[in-house]
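Please check this today:
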Amino acid sequence: MRGCRGYIRKKRGAATVLLCMILSCLLLLVGMFGEASAALASRPYANAIFDLAGRSILSEYDRELKDRYRIFGFRMEEEEVEHKLGDYLREGFSTGAGKTSLLSLRLEEIRVDLSEHVLTNPELLEQQILEIMSDGMLVGALHVLDALELIDNGGWPRAGENEKPKDDSSDDGREDDNDNGGGTHEKNKRVLRNGKIIQGLPSRLLAGIDGGFKSILELPSPSEFGQMAFEEICINLYILKYFRHRLDEPQWNNTFFSNEVEYILCGRLSDETNQNIVYLSLLAFRTAINAAHIRSDAEKWEAVTLAAALAGGGAATPAAQAAIVAIWAGAEAATDMSRLEKGEKVPLIKTAEDWVLSLENAIEGIMNEAGESPEEQEGLDYEDYLFLLLCFKDKESKLIRIMDLIQLNLKGTADEDFDMSRCYSGFSFRSKVKRTSGFPGVLNLRSGEFSGIHVY
C-alpha cells in the first residue's frame, strides 16, 4: 500500500515537472515571437521618429528668405542641428512616466553633415527655382520664343511683308548718385565699396565659375527647346519676377542695387557700369539684327549700293557697302534703344513698315522716331530684351549672382549677419539606436544604425 502511494506521488511530481517544462517552453516561445515582432516593428517606428525630427529641423527655415524669394533654407551650424535633432529624437523615443513600451529605444549617437546642402551650391538653388517657377509661369516667355523662332527658321521678313504676329502680353559700403537713368523713372545708382561685404559675396567665394556670355551658336534652337531650355527659361523668369531692372517702378526701395537684372548679366559692383554694359550689348544686338534686315530688303540694299557707288567714285566696293550698312543699322539701333528706354516696344525682326530711319537721315544724324503710341506698338519691350540677354548668359553665373543679390538685400533689410554660405537646404545624418528587450534573457540588448537625408 505504501509502495502504491509513493508511486502515485512520483507520477504526480513527474507530471508537474512536465507541465512546468511545457509552460516554460510556451513562455519562451511567446517571448521569442514577441521579441521578433518588436524587432520588426522597431525599425519603422524609429524611422518615423527620425522623419518627424527631421521635419522639425526643416521647419525652422529663414522666414525672410522664404517670404521674399520663396527659397527654403535654415541657418544653423552642425553642432546646433545635432543638439536639436538629438532632443527631438529622445523626446520621440521616450514613453513618459508610468508607461511601459515594448519598443524601448534609446539614442546612443547622432552625427549630422551639412556640407552637401549649402545653398551656395548652384544646383541646389536651381532645384528650388525650378519648383517655384514650373507651375504655369512659362506663358510669360511665349511671345519672346515666337520671335526667336523667326530667326531659327531663317524668317527675315522681305520687303512688302507687312504682317506681324500679335503680342498678347500687355549702411556702409555704398555710394548714391541721384541721376535720371535715361528711362522713365529716376532712381539712385549705387556702387558697392565695402571690402568686407564684397569678399563675403558668393561670387567671390566661388571665384572662377563665371562662364560669361554664351555664343549665339551655343543656344538651343526653339525647335530643340527641351528640358535644358525649360530650366533656362524658369531661371530667367525667376530673375525678372524677383529682381528689379532700371525701368522698374521706384517703389522697389528694399534692394541695394537699382539695376539688379543688369548686375546678374554683368556682375559689376556699380549700377551705372552694369547699365552701360547692358545698353551697349543691346545696341550691338539690335545693330546686328538691323544689318541683317537691310541685306534682306531689296529696296534698302539698292540704296546702300547706290550710296557706296557715290562714295567710291562710281564703284560700289564691299567695304563701302559694309560701312554704310553698319552706319544705317547702328543709327536705327540707337533709335530702337531710345524707344526701349522710354518703355516702348521694338520688334525683334523688323519689317519695312517697322523701319524708322531713312539712309539719308542716318548719315546726317537725324534721329526721328516712330510715331505710334506705346499701345499701338508691337514687339518686345526692355524687359523682354533682358530676357534674351539672360538666355546668352551662363547658367551658373546667373545662379551665383542671384545668391549675391539675396545676400546683399537680406543683410541690409533683415539681418546684417545673413550669409548664403551658412544657409542650408537640408542635412544628412547617421545615428545609432539601442533597444532594450522587454523579455529578460532573450537578446537583452540590440543596436541598429540609421542614416538618411532631409531636404526641402
User: Anything to note?
Assistant: The chain has 15 helices and five strands. The first strand starts at residue 104 and ends at 113. The radius of gyration is 36 Å. Confidence is low (pLDDT under 50) at residues 156-172, 177-186.
